[in-house]
Each structure stands twice: as structure tokens, then as C-alpha cells.
Design goal:
The chain is mostly beta strands. The protein has one domain. 14% of the residues lie in helices and 48% in strands. The chain has one helix and nine strands. Strands 1-2-3-6-7-8-9-4-5 form a nine-stranded antiparallel beta sheet, with no helix packed on it. The chain is globular and about 45 Å long.
Length: 176
């Protein structure tokens, strides 16, 4: 009887762990991958794309002065096939997670060495760089979080994040 109860207890633990894993892997938002080839480098960003759905986003759902995963579900990732320079930071070819630190006035892009984690598992000890972002107010709201990679007007590219009435961006260059 004790063996049966021990096995039943183990089964219950395994079932509950499996339930937590299943709940964690259920995505709340659609996911998208956006890619662009800029000056010979393939740059890809994978992220969850939540909708506004009538909610206040900046300073509400996305609180000011707290690190945000810049998307939903899994942490947003950036992959590059060549070294790039964003702000003062040089990122070697590879994968990184992207986070932001939004505020009412300025935003900071955080490039982190850790990848594959859930959006609630930010580890500041793994930060690679913090980069200031240009911020502008949009005339029309963007219903769904959108991250884009565009060619720059004078070479290089621009990484932009838009949602609600806010757009933040930063130029980058591909290193030879």
C-alpha cells in the first residue's frame, strides 16, 4: 500500500509539473519573426505580438521604469549573421534577447546574452549592453506591437518598435 501511495504521489507531482509546463508554453499572443538583410548581414527578430484591445499600454500594461520583455511569452530574440554596432555596443554574430526599459521620456534598449527564457526571467547579470533609443509620438495608434528592421537612409539599418502611440528606434551598422 505504501508503494502504491508513493507512486500515486509521484504521478501527481509529475502531472502538476507537466500542467505548469503546458500552461507556460501556451502563448497568449501571436508570434512573428521579422528578418532583413542589411549590408550582407541577415538580422532576425522573433517576438510575441500582443494587441492593445482597448487597454492603456505605455505606463499601464507596459509600466514605466521597469524592464519589459518587449513582447509576450518567450523573451524577444535578435539573431545576426555578422557583427553589428548599435549605439556604442558591438554585437558579434549570434543570438541575444532584447528587453527595454521604458519611461515617460526616454527608453533604453537592453541587449542580454541569455536566450530561450520566458518573458518573466530577465537576468540583469547577463546584460551585454544598454543603448539609448530615439522616441517619438505617433499620430495614429498601432494596435499590435510591431518590431521592424529597415535599411537606413545612408547605409546600415534601423531597428524600430511601435505600439499604441509610441515608436522607439535606434540605427545600427554592419561591421565588415
Amino acid at each position: 500500500m505504501r508503494t502504491f501511495l508513493a507512486l500515486l504521489g509521484c504521478a501527481a507531482v509529475l502531472a502538476s509539473d507537466g500542467g505548469l509546463l503546458a500552461a507556460r508554453t501556451r502563448r497568449a499572443s501571436p508570434h512573428e519573426t521579422t528578418s532583413a538583410t542589411i549590408d550582407g548581414a541577415l538580422i532576425t527578430i522573433a517576438y510575441g505580438r500582443p494587441y492593445m484591445r482597448g487597454r492603456r499600454i505605455m505606463g499601464g500594461l507596459v509600466p514605466y521604469d521597469r524592464v519589459w520583455a518587449t513582447g509576450a511569452d518567450e523573451a524577444t530574440t535578435l539573431a545576426t549573421t555578422r557583427a553589428i554596432r548599435i549605439g556604442e555596443a558591438t554585437l558579434d554574430a549570434g543570438r541575444y534577447s532584447l528587453w527595454t526599459l521604458p519611461s515617460a521620456g526616454t527608453w533604453t534598449l537592453i541587449v542580454n546574452r541569455q536566450t530561450g527564457q520566458w518573458h518573466t526571467q530577465y537576468d540583469a547579470r547577463r546584460d551585454f549592453a544598454r543603448i539609448d533609443l530615439a522616441t517619438r509620438t505617433l499620430d495614429k495608434p498601432v494596435e499590435q506591437l510591431t518590431i521592424s528592421i529597415e535599411k537606413g537612409a545612408h547605409g546600415g539599418g534601423v531597428l524600430a518598435i511601435a505600439w499604441e502611440l509610441t515608436e522607439v528606434s535606434v540605427p545600427f551598422t554592419v561591421l565588415r
